[in-house]
Amino acid sequence: MTVIELKQDAPDRLVRTRRRGPVLRLEMNNPPANALSIAMMEALKAEFDAAAGDASVRVVILAAATPGKLFCAGHDLKELTAHRAEADRGRAFFERTMKLCAELMQTIVHLPKPVIAEVDGLATAAGCQLVASCDLAMCTDTSAFCTPGVNIGLFCSTPMVALSRNVHRKQAMEMLLTGETIDASTAKEFGLVNRIMPRQYLDQVVQKYAEVIASKSPLTVKIGKEAFYRQAEMSLADAYEYTASVMVENMLARDAEEGVGAFIAKRKPEWTGE
Q: Which spans of this chain does the record mark as coiled coil (predicted)?
């Protein structure tokens, strides 16, 4: 598929963007660690917000501009430490950082389009949180993941939110309490990633997944993603009551009428997003 460049890939651009049809690719470009500085988080959030309002975007891929070593090393510890000299010992800046991080992660979860993490390298601390916040995650067989805050006296409490919603509790606690790095196969076993592959196939496999999802009704995907995360926080009875109402409203949508009709008539559906 032809790559459509949306913006100039200037060397100092924190988030590079590319389009392949309905698939938007966001590449973190803050070497060497792709640290989640204030500027990086603001840039990412701006791109996700823009994607939310762009009907031509069906799926978003989040990757590193320079793959192979670090996907994302989490918060910029040097940036955080620099504010300890302030009168409040950095409290205001720490609060701003954590608030913005929470907003970014929730923006990904609430985005009405699926987000796929394409990981080639190490995803650590808030970088691991970023992976866990995405709807799908694909990685190379040399990738690794960790929440090592405990090693430096700073428990990964905010990464814990996303991590504990993706993997079993004891496995999440294992990562959080030991701070040790897990390899790609362990991450898949834990439920943190969907697929593992050699580096040379990562881009094309992720793009293929994105194109498959992008071929579905955008309205149906939006409804399904929102319902998935909402019902996950409910009791069993409330989840069934809520999703039953979602199904009814979904059935009344034009795309559902078209999709069911196309299935019965054995033809390809034509989605309108309504």
A: none
CATH code for the domain of 257? 1.10.12.10
Give me the count of residues in the chain.
274
Do 86 and 203 sit in the same domain of this protein? yes
Q: Give the pLDDT confidence of 243-264 residue by residue, as tens digits.
A: 999 999 999 999 999 999 999 9
Are the CB atoms for 80 and 94 separated by under 8 Å?
Answer: yes
> What pLDDT is recorded for position 69?
86
**pTM greater than 0.85 (yes/no):** yes
Those residues with Cβ within 8 angstroms of residue 51's Cβ, 6 or more apart along the chain or in another chain:
24, 57, 60, 111, 113
CA dihedral 12, 14, 20, 22 (to 10 degrees): -140
Please write down the HEC assignment for all residues of 50-66. Answer: HHHCCCCCCEEEEEECC
Q: For the domain that residue 137 is a member of, what is the CATH number?
A: 3.90.226.10
Q: Around Cβ 198, how many Cβ atoms within 10 Å? A: 10
Note whether 20 and 100 are same-domain residues. yes
> What is d(CA 261, CA 193) in angstroms, rounded to the nearest whole number?
35
